[in-house]
Amino acid sequence: MKKIVSIVGARPQFIKAAAFSRVVRRKFGEVLVHTGQHYDRNMSARFFSELGIPAPDYQLGIGSGTHAEQTGRMLGAVERVLLREKPAGVVIFGDTNSTVAAALAAVKLKIPVAHIEAGLRSFNRDMPEEHNRVVSDHLSDLLFVPSRQGMANLKREGLGARAYLVGDIMYDSLLGFARIARERSRIIGRLGLKKDGYYLATVHRPSNTDDKKVLKAVLSSLSGLDLPVVFPVHPRTRERIKRFGLAGLLKGIVLTEPAGYLDIIRLMMDSRKVITDSGGLQKEAFYLRKQCVVLRSESEWIELVSSGWAVLTGSDPGRIRRAVLSTRKPRLNSHPYGRGKAADRIVRILASHW
Ligand code: UD1
Q1: Which terminal residue of the chain has fewer beta carbons within 10 Å of its beta carbon, N or C?
Q2: Would you say the CB of residue 40 lies under 6 angstroms from ligand 1?
Q3: What is the DSSP string of 322-348?
Q4: Which protein residue's CA is at the shortest distance from atom 16 of ligand 1?
């Protein structure tokens, strides 16, 4: 069996790796590397145990830092792993600092790179994820793309010949775990929630958390809605709320630790709507047929915006409130991101190249 190295580091990558590892291990020997970008139990270890992801073969323990520090430390550490393992290829996921560091380390050693969730663009150059996407796509040899829009983006950048439309691998995971979430998650009872009786909110993007005025606007729009808001707090956001002294704005908001995958799926299932700046949650909400209020002014998942499943509000409290309270129904019940078979397709294509 040929050897590949898959590299993960942050929460959304664990969810993608769960679907990928299960399938890729039928055809390849997989060496799994965890950069340590996310390290709290609730942000990392919990996902490996709940999703049955094989234990990483390497834990690089990089941790937090500025973008340059974090990415730089990863580069050296990933290179050492690749020199030792000499894989036939490297697989990277999504748009984090772990993604771009792994791509750069591999390409310099002339090891082919495959990027899962390639082609996404927000066209917002202020987002660290946008830098990571553009660079990772251009460094990669095989681009696995979740949407037609992603294919068009890559074509425009001259990368069409390396791109394959495979659908969204997060849908594979969701389909695999939705029933288990319904059976096993106890979060609804534990928080005393009623079906359709609350909103689920998550906030972690630097654009919403790093500026006091913006974070204040977002948090104040979550209190005083017609239903309670359940708010699992990302460590970045928790730290900023404390630093900016905004805890007083959280009245009427049910704060929780970052939720595990099964709990967040369960929370979405019973919610009235989802309010988020996450990319992953926008799609998961759609797969569960929940409308999503997106606390950003653009989305990589434009199909959801044009069909009304996602409503862009930025951080403006008036717009957020109106979107949350609106009763307008979305259109479209199609499958813009495939039918949850992305991992099979990706592995078939990998096997024919590597
Ligand atoms: C990262 C990704 C983003 C992804 C998100 C999912 C980048 C540039 N961004 O953002 O694309 O959507 O993950 O969550 O790679 N922290 C902890 N414990 C942890 C992890 C982080 O306390 O387990 C703290 C760090 O100290 C840091 C902050 O959270 O101050 C942000 O972590 P970082 O890894 O820089 O990026 P995220 O905001 O999580």
Answers
A1: N
A2: yes
A3: HHHH--PPP---S-TT-SS-HHHHHHH
A4: 235
Two structure tokens written together for 60: 């690089």
State residue 224's pLDDT score. Answer: 84
Element (H, E) at 21: helix 11-24
Hey, whose CA ends up nearest to atom 3 of ligand 1? 96
Judge if pTM exceeds 0.85. Answer: yes
Residues 6+ apart with CB under 8 A from 60: 33, 34, 35, 36, 74, 77, 78, 81
**62/98 Cα distance (integer angstroms):** 10
- C-alpha 39/C-alpha 52 separation (Å) is 18
Position in ligand 1 atom list of the atom nearest CA 44: 23
Ligand 1 closest atom vs CA 95: 11
- For the CA of 43, the closest atom of ligand 1 is 23
Check if 326 has its Cβ closer than 6 Å to any atom of ligand 1: no
Q: In order of start, what are the domains of the chain with their CATH numbers?
A: 3-168+338-353 (3.40.50.2000), 176-325 (3.40.50.2000)
Q: How many angstroms is it from 113 CA to the middle of ligand 1?
A: 24
Assess whether pLDDT exceeds 80 at residue 143.
Answer: yes
